[in-house]
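Render this sequence as a predicted structure.
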Amino acid sequence: MRLPTKEMREHPLFAWLPEEGFETFEACFDMEAENLGAGERRESRGRLGYLLSGRLHAADGEAVRPGELFGLSAAGGGRCLTAQVPSTVIWMDREIMTRVCYFDCWFHGRFVTELKQALARQERRTMP
């Protein structure tokens, strides 16, 4: 499925990204969108995921809400997720966080910064 750039731009993680950034991330980091129906299950298969809409539950019972990232902590492995309601997930190669391609696009560096800030906000929300 093509990236739903209009909907993605409604989220702070993607709001600033130019059209060429979406096109580059599709090509360089296999960024793609997937719609899941209620009850559908997916393995993260070592990919980084961003929940654009809906609600997911992991096998360990952890809830994933819209605007949250997942799949980074399961080092190299996968995580089984079930859509509780119709959901849209943005998948990307987790190397987006560690690899800089030879094009060295300005928006890649900014995206890594945005990802790290989003993860820090998520951690603060889950701390007691």
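Summary. Helices lie at 5-8, 19-28, 106-126. DSSP finds three helices and six strands in the chain.
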